Prior knowledge:
Helices cover 49% and strands 12% of the residues.
Amino acid sequence: xxxxxxxxxxxxxxxxxxxxxxxxxxxxxxxxxxxxxxxxxxxxxxxxxxxxxxxxxxxxxxxxxxxxxxxxxxxxxxxxxxxxxxxxxxxxxxxxxxxxxxxxxxxxxxxxxxxxxxxxxxxxxxxxxxxxxxxxxxxxxxxxxxxxxxxxxxxxxxxxxxxxxxxxxxxxxxxxxxxxxxxxxxxxxxxxxxxxxxxxxxxxxxxxxxxxxxxxxxxx
Length: 220
């Protein structure tokens, strides 16, 4: 049964993970510096503030951490406002869910401003009943609060609500809270592919036949 849907954004609706993987290198390039091998792996687990401190220290940037964070955020805002695109097939899924009367919400770790800017440009913002962010909810996706609040917003129970995620920790959080789960393949999460396939109720390598998906989801 599928009464409601909750979507992650980066790597699920938007093909936006590359900017997060490459932002350190892109920022250094804008400052006339060349990133060293392994920079992506070093920065990925860091907060933006930690990454700023690291870049200043390792690349001798004549800036404060506050300034670096502001400039990086500016680059990210520009990407969402001007460049981020929907993953292939996403629009068809969203429109079909809307046509079927299935309410949809967004649960994202990204900032509201960036998500709304991208969705507004791509003409999908009005398809969602609500957008919830981890910062506004006060918990990351290692805690089910954002999914539970999203389900409350669209008026559905966890067991009849499907959560689309591309990372293991987020998908497992939703699953343990009683939600049905869809793992969406994204290159950034390819190392966790086997776990995503085994843990999710449905695994999508791409947004293919939406009618087939609805049949599969309704049968569970």
